Automatic annotation (TrEMBL):
Organism: Actinomyces viscosus C505
CDD domains to which the protein is assigned, alphabetical: HAD_BPGM-like
Domain of life: Bacteria
Pfam families the record matches: Hydrolase (PF00702)
Keywords (A to Z) from UniProt: Hydrolase
One MF annotation (Gene Ontology) recorded for this entry: sugar-phosphatase activity
Protein name (record): HAD hydrolase, family IA
């Protein structure tokens, strides 16, 4: 029988990006964005749809206005459209959480060895909570797009998670799939495990690359080679 490694070194928490890392809800966002913007006479051109990937709430509202569906990002009608889009995404995530392979395995394993975990995402809180529930509610902190702490690559989202856990940056490891997210974490001095095939910051020793979520183990997240 194999056992999970016992946490050592200074790692006491793993902070997760959500979309593209633990799950893939982007098709839900794209479909809802196109539908609701077109319903108001907007033109959700492919280049605008592409920018919805990783967009903050403010950025999503700017994209809605850019389609011509509303007058400006701060138009109350734009917020109504965004809420309708988010409602559709929440319903889709609730019906069939699009968890990526390995997500439930690794978050459960980390919980079993006693590591704190958190999610740091630009998505609205109600959607992040649905994903957290699908993963067994093993997260001690959720930092979301509703929290008013800025958007990645600003360091503040991850700094907020560290503060809420009452830890130090060197006590944490972040798992990310995007250069903006990795930059947000590294801006706090937090080590990063990056999912992908090309290292975002080649000269950075505080960032290691794995091909996919299924490749991540508790041993790797404990940064056992440092």
């Amino acid at each position: 029988m194999t056992t999970s490694p016992t946490p050592n070194f200074t790692v006491r928490a793993v902070l997760w990006d959500m979309d593209g890392t633990l799950m893939d809800s982007q098709p839900f966002w794209d479909e809802a964005f196109i539908h609701h913007c077109q319903a108001l006479g907007g033109d959700p051109r492919p280049e605008l749809v592409a920018q919805m990937t990783g967009a903050s709430i403010r950025q999503a509202r700017e994209l809605i206005a850019a389609t011509g569906a509303t007058r400006s990002w701060d138009d109350p009608a734009t917020q109504e459209v965004f809420e309708a889009i988010a409602h559709d995404v929440e319903a889709s995530v609730s019906a069939a959480p699009p968890l990526l392979p390995g997500a439930l395995r690794i978050t459960s394993a980390l919980s079993e060895v006693g590591l704190a975990q958190g999610i740091v995402s630009a998505s609205p809180r109600r959607i992040v909570e649905k994903v957290a529930s699908a993963l067994g509610d093993v997260f001690a902190v959720l930092v979301t797009g509703d929290d008013g702490v800025g958007a990645k690559p600003d360091p503040l989202p991850y700094a907020t998670a560290v503060e809420r856990l009452d830890l130090r940056p060197q006590d944490c490891v972040v798992v990310e799939d995007s250069p903006t997210g990795a930059a947000s974490a590294r801006g706090n001095g937090i080590h990063v495990v990056q999912i992908g095939t090309t290292k975002h910051f080649p000269a950075d020793p505080g960032l290691v690359v794995v091909p996919d979520l299924a490749s991540i183990t508790p041993h790797l997240l404990l940064w056992a080679d440092r």
